[in-house]
Task: structure prediction
Amino acid sequence: MQHTAAQQPSSLRTTLLTSPDLESLREQVMRAFEATFDRYEQLFEVLQSEEAYFVKPIALRHPLIFYFGHTATFFMNKLLLAGLINERIDQRLESMFAVGVDEMSWDDLDDARYDWPSVQRVRDYRRQVRAVVGELIRSLPLAAPIGWDSPWWVILMGIEHERIHLETSSVLIRQHSLKYVQPHSAWQPCQISGTAPANALVDVPAGQFRLGRDHAKPAVYGWDNEFGVHDASTAPFQAARYLVSNQEFLAFVEDGGYGDDSLWSEEGAAWKRFANAQNPTFWVREGSTWRLRLMCEEVSMPWDWPVETNCHEARAFCQWKTRETGTPHRLPTEDEWHAMRLGAGIGDLPQPSPAPANIELDHWASSCPVTRFAHGPFYDLIGNVWQWLETPTYPYAGFEVHPIYDDFTTPTFDDRHNLMKGGSWISCGNEALPISRYAFRRHFFQHAGFRYVVSAAPAEVPHSHYETDRSVAEYCEFHFGDSYFGVPNFPRALADLAIQAMGSRPAQRALDLGCATGRASFELARHFDRVTGIDFSARFIGVGTQMAAQGRVRYTLVDEGELVTYKERSLADIGLDDVAHKVEFFQGDACNLKAVFTGYDLILAANLIDRLYSPAQFLRTVHERLNLGGLLVIASPYTWLLEHTKREEWIGGFKKDGESFTTLDGLKLLLEPHFQLMRVPLPVPFVIRETLRKHQHTLSEVTIWQRL
Result:
C-alpha cells in the first residue's frame, strides 16, 4: 500500500467518544482538529495561482476562496451560537463565508454581491481560528462520554464539517480547468490499472435488521439524520459483485445510451439536455481514445476503475441493462445496501489503519481498480467511490434536529436528494462510517459511482413531501393556516399596520427580518415593489422559498401523541399568489447581515429582538439598512430567555438603579439617536397551535420608528 509522509490516517478517523481517560480523549480531539485543519489547507496547495481561487469551477458553486474560508467561519459561527466564545474574529468574513454551500434556491451565488478577500487574508484568518479552537480544546472542561448535548459535540461538529468539505472541495478542484491545478506530492493518484473484470451477480438472502443511532449512546460523532429508529426488512435479491467499471459503462456509452431519452427519467433527461452530456463528466475524449480527469491531471483511461457518474446516469445505465438482459436492474435501496454490508461483516465503527478499503486517504488520492479490496463476496462495499442509492433521504422515526446546526439535513427532505453510501477514497471521519447518511441532488457530481441490483421487487421509496419538523410545521400553521379563538393572522396584522404607517412614503423595497416561514413577506409585497425575507433558520427559509416557487406547502400538525393532521396551504388560498414574484428569501444572521442588505424603505422585525444573541448590536446598526424617512416596525412579546440571549445582552426586563427598566426603555435608549417613535406602542395578539387542545396565546408589543 502507498502512503505519503503528509498523511496521518489515524487522526483523520472519527474520534471514539467513550474513553474514560479524559486527557487522552482531549488529546485525540486536538489531533483530529489539527490533522483535519492541516489536510484541508494542504488540499488548496494544488491550486496553481491566486487566480485559481477566484474563478468558479462550475457556475452553481462559489469560487474556491469561499470554501477556503467557509470551514473556519463555520467553527466561529457555531461556537458563538453555542456560547462557547463571546467575540468574533472578523465579522465581515464570518458573514460572507457563512452560507452558500449547497445549491439551494436561497443561496446567494451572485458574484456582484461579493468583494472577496485576498488569499493571504483568509490564510491569516484561518490561523486566528486555529488558535481560538485550539485554546478551547485545551481549556474546556471535559466529561466522557461526549454526547449530543455536550459543548464538545460542537467542536466535533466543526471537525467533521471540515472533513466533508475536504471531499466536496476536492470535487470542485477536479472540475476546475487544468491550467489552475498542479500535481502535489501529498495528493498522488493510484498508478495501478489492468483489465476490467466481467461483473457477476451475488445472491443476497432476505434480511431483517434495525438501523439508526441512539442519542443516549453516541460512540462516535453523528449528524442528526443518523439518529432515530428504522426497522428494515429486505426480500432476497442479487447484487453486482463489483462496482460498475469504466469498461462496463463504456458499452452503455457506445450503444447510444446518452442519446436515448427512453432510458432516462424526465428529470434526468432535462439535466442531460441542459448539460449537453454525451459521456461521464470526468471522461475526456481524444480522437478515438478516452482519458480520465483526476483531481490534478488527466491520465489514460483506467478501464478497471469504477465509473463516476451522477444519479441520473446511474439510473439510465440500469434501465439500459434491464433492456439488454431482460431482467430488472436498478440501484439498491438504503436497506439493501445495509443488507450487503452486514452480510459481508462490515461493522459500524471506524476501520483499522490502514483500512482494508480505499478510504480515509489511507492509500491514494484517486480511485483504484474495482478488484483491489474484497469485502466478503463483494468488492468495494465501502470506499473507492460513493454508491448512489435509489432511496431519497428521509428522517428515521424519532428524528430531531441539533439546535446548533438545524439545517444540516432538513433542507434535503424534499425527494430530490438521493442517498449515497460507502464513502470514497477521500472520505474521512464520519463520512467513512457505514452508518453515516449523506444525500445530494441527483445531478450532482461527487467521487461517486454505483453498483446495480437485480430484483423483481420494486424499490420501496420513502417520501418526505410533508414538513414533519414540529416547530417548522407549527409556524406553517401560524403563518398560512387557520385562525384560532378569533385572533387574526399575526403576520397579516403586522403587515397591515406597517402598510398603513407608510402612508405616501416611497415603497420600493422592504425587509422582513426574522421572517420565519414568510407570510409577512408576501403580505408586504401587496404594497412594496420588492420584499426580502431573511431568517437565521434555513428550515424556515425553505418554506418561504417553496411558497414563492411552487405556491403551496404541505405539513403535519400534532393532534395528540402520535396522531397528526395533514395540511396543505397555498398562496392562492390567501389571495397572495399574484405577488410571489416580488419576494425573495435568504438565510442570514440579523446581528451580522451582509452589506448588500441595505437601502430599504421599511424593515419589519417581528418577534425577533428577544431571540437575538446581541439585540443591542442589531438596534445600534439597523439604521444603516434604512433609507432616510424609512420605517422600522418592531414587534416583540419581550420574552427574554437565557437559551437565546445571555443575561448581560438583555436590553430591558430588569432593575436599573433600583427602578424597573423595560424593554421599551431599552428600545428608546438604543434607537432614539437615529429614530423617532411615531406612535404609542400597540399590543397585537397571536396564537400558535401546539396540539389540537394546546395553544400558545401571546401579546406582542408593536412600536413604529421613523429614521431621522
Observations:
- Residues 1-9, 104-108 have pLDDT under 50 and may be disordered.
- The chain is about 30% helix and 20% strand.
- Residues 13 and 429 are 4 Å apart (CA to CA).
